[in-house]
Amino acid sequence: MSERSERRWHPRRACVFGAVLALAAGPAALAAPTTPSPPAGAGTAATAAPTPGGEQLYRQSCASCHGEQGRGSQRGPSLIGVGPASVDFQLSTGRMPIADEKPQPRRAEPVFSADEIAALVDHVASFGGGGPQIPQVAPGNLQAGRELFAANCAPCHGATGAGAPLTDGRTAPALYDATPVQVAEAVRVGPGLMPVFPSQVLTDQQVDDLATYVRRLRDERLDRGGNPLGRLGPLPEGVVAWIVTLGLLVTAARWLGRRAGQ
Ligand code: HEC
Ligand code: HEC
Q1: Which site in 40, 73, 187, 261 is 20 to 30 Å from 7, CA atoms measured?
Q2: How does residue 222 score in pLDDT terms, banded at 50, 70 and 90?
Q3: Rounded to whole angstroms, how far apart are CA atoms 30 and 28?
Q4: What would the mean pLDDT of 99-120 be, rounded to a whole number?
Q5: What is the spatial distance between Cα 213 and Cα 222, in angstroms, rounded to a whole number?
Q6: CA gyration radius for the chain?
Q7: Residue 135 and residue 180: Cα distance in Å, rounded?
Q8: Atom from ligand 1 closest to the CA of residue 112
């Protein structure tokens, strides 16, 4: 386990301490008041023929923020030792490349093809430093996944996986679009404010269980026909429960009042 993951590992108390530590460890670039221009070539690389190699794609779309050799800059963190899983996660979820240093990269349509992503993963790996490999995911146990999710993930992502606000305008996103490999990558890499869960905390089998359960959350949400409550997260659900309780109390008071008036 790298020093980096030790520093960011807070499995249970993640919501309380993980956010604070991850913020402290986060890139100073986020505070820099620069007005950057979008990276040259981002989004257009796919149309060039023949397909450019990882080095060229990196120079066009990543180096302006992460540096020619991946050492980082004012605008983006070092990529040395983040590992193939992190690069694959950021590119396959369309988080990277970002046009400017927004507070939190969002999921979007990927800019690069699968081949281009693989080439970029290899190029960033050539900077050295190791880091987590792209996980192999197998079908897991649904019930075990349900319990692991409730204990480790629901505090931030909500019991239904609908996502919830965290701190500082950042959110734990909804999990309905994540593929099983992306779920496993997020667990091992800990993107943004999410803590890293190394294999001492969650075994590969447990990650398979989680990935299977997260898929089920998506199906359950579709079954509900996109029930809007499911998308609001824990706080509004609490508010709704409160309103329902209040409604019952008012009804009871009225009933008692009527009886008293009879
Ligand atoms: C406009 C600047 C910018 C560009 C261009 C950019 N990035 Fe980033 N990148 C960032 C910032 C800022 C972060 C930190 C985001 C956060 O707060 O989570 C980041 C995070 C990452 C991470 C996660 C690092 C970690 O510590 O886990 C990876 C991997 C990454 N970028 C890869 C890439 C690749 C590959 C490209 C090119 C295809 C790219 N980025 C283009 C600014 C940039
Ligand atoms: C401390 C809060 C926190 C905890 C606990 C947490 N996450 Fe996250 N998670 C986040 C945040 C924040 C992001 C967005 C990262 C970014 O800024 O790019 C995220 C992103 C993700 C994504 C990417 C979603 C997408 O579609 O792009 C997946 C998948 C994910 N988390 C799964 C999990 C699983 C599974 C667990 C439990 C093992 C977990 N998370 C625990 C905060 C958390």
Answers
A1: 73
A2: confident
A3: 5
A4: 92
A5: 14
A6: 22
A7: 10
A8: 38
